[in-house]
Amino acid sequence: MEKAQLHLEGRTYELDVVIGTEGEKALDISKLRDQTGYITVDVGYKNTGSTYSQITFIDGEQGILRYRGYPIEQLAEFSTYLEVAYLLIYGELPTRAQLEDFEERIKARTLIHEDIKKFFDGFPSSAHPMGVLASVVCSLSSFYPESLDPYAPDEVVERNIIRLLAKVPTLIAWIYKKRMGHPYIYPRNERSYVNNFLYMMFGMPTYDYEPDPHVVDALDKLLILHADHEQNCSTSTVRTVGSSRANIYASVSAGICALWGPLHGGANQEVIEMLEMIKADGGNVQKWVEKAKDKNDPFRLMGFGHRVYKNFDPRAKIIKQAADQVLNALGIHDPVLDIAKKLEEVALSDPYFIERRLYPNVDFYSGIIYRAIGIPVEMFTVMFAFGRLAGWLAQWWEMRRANEPIVRPRQVYMGPGLRDYVPIAKRG
Ligand code: CMC
């Protein structure tokens, strides 16, 4: 095994060099503190690998994304979300019989406990869908106490994974119904997974509803593209929470909260709001690009930039094409898509964005598709959570099966040195 040498305070230490399947290089510092008394500092974990994972590979320089070795382009074109979920969770593509069995097990659990309806009653209809989803997903743990056992056998973990895949679409559709003041629509399990979700979202008890097949396909593709993205903020959160042996519902709920932020999944809502704002302001794209470059202005181009991708985000490429396809198929002309394309063109020829290697990310065009299929802007991030669920579950299970230790970073303390307490009477 190759070693790296560290020279510190007149001594030389050897660190193991770790090489990943795709040639990714790392230094193993796990014994560093014991050997040297030093820790490493890496705020925001920009250079820190938190685990060894077999699920997703990203090469940010070359714009490569693969799930279990399969290129995202092939999966997005030929697979379905549930097949991809199976792949992420179990590590291999299913046979036809395995996939049918997986789908049947999910279908058998799409209903949610009737008492959960009362939770929905308690939220104001203006509640942000991410807050509601996080709360209700966490509360599912109280309906399935077997999930609380940190040493439960695989079959119990698997059952709860299936439950989450089955129930989250129903919960999301019901969050929408509550917002709209419409009656809840129960799942119809003769429908496919994505068709069923759209049926629960947009169906009504007063008429038959059949979603447009273009919409079903577009949504399936979006879910696949969002399904996993290795150790991003929300996935790391899911693994971190799970590392304390917290249950899977609590861990996924924490992931939903992490995803909510505008620098992560919340960016898809922010992108459409930004594009609308630019449109309302007269569509002067250059003006907003200048604002994004101005360090005294907090405005950033939402949907631009990525911690890992430095040439292009392969998901954004596929989504941009899909946005054109679905809007054409539905006969929609969305002026916001024109603004988005113009913004991309102006930004990508600007030295500020070129030098910093800032490109459109997955969130830049996804909202345009969501909007075309009738999903309100406040629900965009919930749709991201819907797709990411498969990845969170796969990553949580991988972490548990590897019996990873509790996540507990260290810090470098920079606060005041020791000082004596002064009673309040003497403090003035
Ligand atoms: N607009 C303008 N400037 C930007 C942007 C942007 N969207 N993104 C990064 N920069 C600048 C930033 O100011 C910094 O400049 P300087 O070196 O002069 O200080 C430089 O580029 C590096 O940025 P950073 O914030 O240090 O990079 P990061 O890796 O910490 O952040 C990011 C990555 C995605 C949070 C950031 O690019 C960003 O805030 N983008 C907008 C929000 C967004 O679209 N988020 C969705 C990410 S993709 C979906 C997901 O997986 O979550």
CATH superfamily of the largest domain: Citrate Synthase, domain 1
Helix content: 40-55%
Q: What is the overall shape?
A: globular
- Output the strand order for the largest sheet: 1-2-3
Number of alpha- plus pi-helical segments: 18
Assembly classification: single chain
How far apart the termini lie comes to 63 Å
Q: If you consult CATH, what is the topology of the largest domain? A: Citrate Synthase, domain 1
Ligand identities: carboxymethyl coenzyme *A
- Please provide the ordered H/E string of secondary-structure elements: EEEHEEEHHHHHHHHHHHHHHHHH
Task: State the secondary-structure class.
Answer: mainly alpha
Please indicate the percent range of residues in DSSP E strands (runs of 2 or more): 5-15%
Largest sheet: 3 strands, antiparallel
Secondary structure tally: strands: 6
**Uncertain segments of ≥5 residues (pLDDT<50)?**
none
Average pLDDT: 96
